[in-house]
Amino acid sequence: MTIKVSSNLKNLARILKTDLYLVGGYVRNSYLNLPNYDIDIASSLSIEQIFERLDGTIYNVKIRSIKMGTVEIFAPNEVYQHTTFRKDSYNLNGTHEPINSKFVVDKSEDATRRDFTINDIYFNILSGEIYDKYNGIADIKTRTLKTIETPDKVFSEDGLRLLRLVRFATELKFNIDKDTYESAKNYARNLSSISGERKRNEIEQILNASSKYYKDANPIYGIQLLYELHLMPKIFHIDKFKWKFNETDFLPIRNNLPKHLKLSCFLICLFNTINNVQKIDFDKFIQIVSSKNALNLSNKETSHNAKLLKAFYFKDEISNLRKYIIKNQIVIDDLILILSAFNNTKLINAIKEERTKMQKEKVPLSIKDLKINGNDLNQNFEIEHSKIGTVLNKLLNICIFTPNLNNKEDLLKLTAKMLNN
């Protein structure tokens, strides 16, 4: 196995005049012959020493976190994240950020703050020395995820490590060590200390696992692990709902979907799974999983997912396809993609045919598309301001099916008849 080191990185190590190590995913992926997206490096040098030694060189430095001793180093065509060796202390309730960090000079102390053995291998950039305190190379060879030291210590310190465990197992197609697996089940409560934003980021990476390293990486394996490790209720705050994991319920997630729709598809699958056991309200479900302590979705994302979920759920109760399309026009393109994941070609074709027909007929899709507005109504009729919207909506409903009436003359006639009645 060869760990590729660029000339820029070797040059950096020479300028810094210290033992500079590649760490984390870069070393792990090199052993697995996988692409590297990030270049993490570490040494005993402080932030101040990094700035001093790189002053006037081709390398530019930007501070990421003084507390964590992290800087970004910009080289031609490469960016490195350097972290000073440190030892972290936690309050053991799962909070991601350590309560105290002490900078150290020994890499063996730095190694004790990491999560899994496969991420805890150090490669000396100039000498080629490998430092593998927790036998991570052996675990890479057996494709096993194992915590450094005891699993209880690792998971009690940082709840996010539970989701990272599932993500790595899914993305890398690794098995989880028995002791690590059993311990993880006991620390689900620590996810309550993790922000919704961080939880969402991990969940989306799990759902998009097949686009990271291996095309056959199975996101449903990740969902199953979330369920088996009792993490799902703590992520989505669905403790009160009764349901059981069934692989077939989540199969659509494996189908070809854009990355931004994987989460929406998952929420639809999850809703259906729960709703089959215990009837729940759409809006309540979306409100819970979108909340700040769950996935922390924006108001726009929450609204979009709620509309998408309702549109999908009521697909079998369509009394009028044209009205269904207009009602769901904001999400209709995403809905077609979701329906494709569920292999519902019949409804997809019907929607596409009807939309083509509507375009040819120039069907108005909203009040704004009518050839009449509130000012026209005020000028031609004595009508209360509060009723203008109601009248326009009635005119829209008429023009949806008789678009040839969408002209000012006919709309005024229809309004007169409406008001006289």
In short:
With 421 residues, the protein is α+β, with helices and mostly antiparallel strands.
Explain what this protein looks like in three dimensions.
The chain has 421 residues and is of the alpha+beta class. It contains 20 helices and eleven strands. The chain has helices at residues 7-16, 25-32, 47-54, 107-110, 136-141, 151-157, 160-172, 178-185, 196-207, 219-228, 232-236, 259-275, 282-290, 299-313, 321-327, 332-341, 345-361, 374-380, 388-401, 408-420, and strands spanning 21-23, 40-43, 60-65, 70-75, 78-84, 86-89, 100-103, 122-124, 130-131, 144-145, 175-176. It has a seven-stranded mixed beta sheet with strand order 3-4-5-2-1-8-9. It has a two-stranded antiparallel sheet with strand order 6-7. It has a two-stranded parallel sheet with strand order 10-11. Strand 4 and strand 5 (78-84) form a beta hairpin. The longest helix has 17 residues, at 259-275. It starts with 6 loop residues before the first helix and ends with a helix. The mean pLDDT is 93.
